[in-house]
Amino acid sequence: MQKLIIEGKKELRGKIFISGSKNASLPILAASILCNQASLQNVPLVKDIFTMIELLEYIGLKIKISEKKNILKIYNNDKNIKTLAPYKLVKTMRAGVLVLGSLLTKYGKAKVSLPGGCAIGTRPVDLHLFALKKLGANIKIKNGYIIAEAKKGLKGTTINFPSISVGATENALLAAYNAKGKTIIKNCAIEPEIKDLILFLNKLGANIKISGRTITIFESENKNYKIDHDIMFDRIETGSFIIASALIGKKIIIDRINPKIIKTEINILKKIGVKIKIKKTSVTILKSKNLKPMKILTKPYPGFPTDLQAQLMVLLTQANGVSKIKEAIFENRFMHVPELNRMGANIETKNNIAIIKGPTKLMGAEVMATDLRASVSLVLAGLTAENRTIINRIYHLDRGYEFLETKLKSCRAVIKRV
Fold first, then answer.
1. Residue 160: beta bridge partners?
2. pTM for this one?
3. Which of 167, 190, 225, 230 is least enclosed by beta carbons within 10 angstroms?
4. Closest CA to 201 of 184, 219, 185, 177
5. Is 118 a catalytic site residue?
6. What's domain 4-18+233-417's superfamily in CATH?
């Protein structure tokens, strides 16, 4: 099994180019079932993307990958389509459940395995099924599979989510694409990745408008079946590298981003004491000293993202005083805490609150990654720590970070995979 070895305390400087967003690419790949031909640029070629490609090919789509250019060409001639997403392809990646909405609206039926993914909480599919039932789907769960049918097609309706869910909002959008009549989705997620999906669907001829936390999908007859789309930048990768730069950087430029989209994160990091210079498509992080403690609550966008909670926790181990992070999205997302404490952090958890006492001197140790974002927090800790850190189970990391070691090495980090 592969592991990462990091020699800590090496000051970083240089330039990092941010990849396309994994969390935008996955629902857009699920949406590609709806068209005949799509060309997707700026796709991050990480493990989750390859799993989704394998799932789409199993369903019957043809996909050509240009790895040097990060371009996917996707073809669907509607022949020999399987409306099945098997357990073996959905168990490791929660986003696999998103093919449910696309298959149901295009082919009138779908059989999709209940999903897997990171062990950070229950994340049930109740809200996905709630939305699809509202649109007129008949749904039952049997032998670990969601079996959905809409023999006469889906019908526009009003969906008022009882709580905000990114995945359920995406599945509702995909299912409503071909629904008859108008669909209104209330109390929906409004993450930038969802707006990128809406942009893709509108290029496909949908007529979708978003206002506050309400999305309206108007019935459209003018469908396009051949489109090009450029995937947005990965804001979680961006935040991860900004925090790495704040911890151990002298001067790092993080390029190919839209700073306006991560305004909340930038403002919080500035309050902590991170020195950030903002340009139109990049940010520059300068050596940051005298970091201040902070109280943080994770929230749906535009709040502080749960996907940056673990990384921010590493930064707060170096702040002068007591910080608190309340995790309000997932109930089991502090699994990195024991590993950080093994490296010298002083963190205790009470229910869904982490109390971080700083500053503490981090020391290299052998640690184990437990999920995607926890794994990158251990990389950040290893970069900051004295001596050598060994990170096990880095397959979690490969699910969502493209060329992580290469990007860090380009900024003079000493990191290798064995």
1. 186
2. 0.95
3. 225
4. 177
5. yes
6. Enolpyruvate transferase domain (3.65.10.10)
